Amino acid sequence: MSTIQLTDVQKHFQRRPIIQNVSLSIDSGKIFGLIGPSGCGKTTLIKLMVGMLKADAGHIEVLQQAVPNYNLLQKIGYMAQSDALYTDLTGIENMQFFAKLYSFNKVERAKRITYAADIVQLTNALSQKVETYSGGMKRRLSLAIALIQNPDILILDEPTVGIDPALKLTIWQELERLKKVEKKTILITTHVMDEAEKCDELALMREGKIITHGTPTELKTLYNAKTFDEVFLQAGGAKL
Ligand SMILES: Nc1ncnc2c1ncn2[C@@H]1O[C@H](COP(=O)(O)OP(=O)(O)OP(=O)(O)O)[C@@H](O)[C@H]1O
């Protein structure tokens, strides 16, 4: 069953077409990867799905409800590309602030914060002010905040940028667990080709269009390619 459905979606900025007739179906319980070069429209497409931007044409449904829809916000965990954090507060204060937006009681809230901080290995840095965090630590805190909510759908815009390989592996293991055990639907954007391999399905974007989509194996077979760099080049994309 599809959790996110886009039909002929279009978006312009200052009359420039940024998203051009995109139709896409993202199945529930899958990790779906949106891949494409910088500026091709990945973040714009995600913001349209979350309801932060309004499409100029076309139709978007999430969980069979038309977007934008206030009720859907409780069901989507969104990690933006630029970190929306309060830098003069500590890590834990940031987590508490966002956790209070959701309908947890005090005990659940504390449990969710402990779980999320542990996944991104920030437990020992929670009492520090965010202004003292490195870029990677801020990314990890943003990811932790998206995880607090325990949503049906996780939409993560480049979640592993600036994160070291060992922690990246831990984060991917958790995404796999969330998919398998908790049946979450996860949408990520990435430039990183080895992350593309880990997705169940992929859509490759270029200049506001989906140029091809399928499972990693299907795409490699289709383009007779050994790597995703090759798939992307064969499909007509620029080098990432
Ligand atoms: N609010 C805006 N006003 C005008 N142009 C915008 C706006 N937001 C994005 N754009 C333009 O739309 C295009 C797509 O941007 P978008 O951020 O969606 O790309 P992206 O694929 O996510 O890139 P990256 O991988 O670098 O984050 C870019 O040319 C960008 O400059």
TrEMBL record:
Chain ranges of the ABC transporter domain: 4-232
Database matches in SUPFAM superfamilies: P-loop containing nucleoside triphosphate hydrolases (SSF52540)
GO terms for MF: ATP binding
One Pfam family here: ABC_tran
Entries under PROSITE patterns matching the protein: ABC_TRANSPORTER_1, ABC_TRANSPORTER_2
InterPro entries: AAA+_ATPase (IPR003593), ABC_transporter-like_ATP-bd (IPR003439), ABC_transporter-like_CS (IPR017871), P-loop_NTPase (IPR027417)
UniProt keyword terms in alphabetical order: ATP-binding, Nucleotide-binding
Stored PANTHER family: ABC TRANSPORTER G FAMILY MEMBER 20 ISOFORM X1, ATP-BINDING CASSETTE, SUB-FAMILY H, MEMBER 1
Protein name: ABC transporter ATP-binding protein
